[in-house]
Amino acid sequence: MRARSLSVAAVAAAIVLVQPGLAVAADDPNTTVTYTVTSGALSMSAPVSANLGSGAPGTTISGALGTVTVTDDRALLSASWTVTASETDFTNGASTIPATDAGYDPGSITTTGTITATGTPVTLSHTATPVVTGTSGVGDNTATWNPTVSVSVPPSAVGGNYTGTLTQSVA
Fold it and tell me: With pLDDT > 70 as the criterion, what percentage of the chain qualifies?
C-alpha cells in the first residue's frame, strides 16, 4: 500500500509541474545564452585597367570603367562611408592632357543590405573628390556601380596612346 501511495504522489507532482501559469520553483536553473556577431572591414574593388577607346582632337572620349563595389562588413548600427576619386594627368610620353579634362559619373547604384548610396558626377583632378556617399547604413551592406569616365580631348592634342591613373578609395 505504501508503494502505491508514493506513485500516486509522484503523478500528482508531475501534473502540478506541467500546469501552465504555475510558479517555477526558486531552485530551477536559468541559463544565460550569449553569442557574438562578427564584424569585418570596409573595402572596395575596382577594375585594374580600362580602355575608353579613341577619338579625334576636339571630341570627347568616354566609356564604362567597369564594376566598382564597396563592401561594408563592419556590422555597424549607424554606418556611413565615402568613395573619392582623383586622376593623374594623361600622358603619351611627349604630350599631356590635364586630369581636369576628365569626368567621372557613377551612374546608377545598386545596393544590398541597408544603405543609401548617392552618386555625384564630378570633374576629376589631382585632388580626391567624393563621387559616391553611403549613409543611413545598418549592419553589413554593399553598393555597386559602373562609372562612365570621359575625357574632353583638346583640339591641340597630339596623336598617340594616353595613360593616366584613376585612384578611387573608400573611407
Answer: 85
